[in-house]
Amino acid sequence: MTKPFTLLTEFESDDNEPSHLKKSKITSLLKKKFDFESSHLRPSNGKEKGILAKCFGYFAPEQAKELGIYPYFREIQEIDGCHVVIDGKQAVSVSTNNYLGLAQEPGVVSAAKEAVEKFGIGCTGSRFLNGTFNLHKTLEREISSFLHREDSIVMSTGFQANQGTIACILGRKDIAFSDRENHASIYEGCSVSPGKTVRYQHNDMDHLEYYLKKYSDVEGKIIITDSVFSMSGDIANLPAIVKLAKDYGASVMVDEAHGLGVMGESGRGVANYYNLEDEIDIYMGTFSKSLGSIGGFISAKSKITEFIRHKASAFIFTAALPPASVAGVIAGLDIMINEPERIEKLRDNTAYIKRGFFDMGFQVNNNSIPIVPIKIGEEALTLYLNRLLFDDGVFAGVAVSPVVPPLNAMIRTSYTSSHDQKDLDKVLGSFRKLGTQLGVIPK
Fold this sequence. Notes:
This protein has 443 residues and is of the alpha/beta class. It is 41% helix and 16% strand.
């Protein structure tokens, strides 16, 4: 990784300067070198024509790499809980959704190894034909039992679970009401379906009701929402959504990807937390967050799941989830249920880190969600801060447009039960030191 250019020495004499002025100066200097909003700063050579010309005129990643502030696709060489080694450098990771620390849990790894020995590394076919193993059916039964639902379908990814389900449920005469901050997989499912989709403002129940009134004559209606929004860490207003659904005759689908293992009794999610499990028609979840593996699932009444099994292209036309992943999830689910101290530790860590950021002057959500975005605003400054954090031993995520709106860039941090107080204090110390040096927070 290229070492970034240095700005801080140019402002060492400005320690007494107001933080907002220091931030403005640094941002201005950064934008002279890397103007994110322009997407690229070099003109295309003009030789390339046709549909692929845009690829040869796209220089933003290349330029960010040259400056040493490109944050993506970093190669993790070693991992031990929340500690990683990248480019030979050790760092505390706050860029993981391994909320309960199950990805490297010995019992989970052992179950995965046994499945590999018994079944091999893959299913070599789709669930629809030759790829359904007894492991898949066992996991589906255990999920259904855990969530108190009639039936479940295990799919190869959480993305496919959302996309495939929505695409086959939303018919030509139907309409979906989708929160503007919903996950991309929900957007994709809506876009490939023959039905209509309207997007209401984030967590704005008045706006949702406006659309429900507008389309009250449509018989087939479904409200789709994340339970926990992956970028902001906001929690959906499920009580209000359920009430509106009843008032206007709509069904409800909830994506509990970041709610499972985090909220509710034994980690059953936001629907359980609000005691609304019976009011949710379709429960979607993933195995790639709290359960530390990969894959997704849909839980619903058996007639609904049977329809999806036979109609969802994303389920029918893709290879089944590998045996090791399925066995690992079965073991992980058992640990999550029987070791509630993991969830308690996660909640304690979340409260500690949020209190620390709040005391520093950062705005953070006052909830128990371990997603803690640190909003910086300017894209180039955010990329630069992210690189400085890595140099200081903190491996964090970064979100810029179009993932978030322009000039709303953030350092996206997330926390696990594997972090101890030393790790959390290290993260807070790095943000405090670098945040004041860049004028992001007051000294």
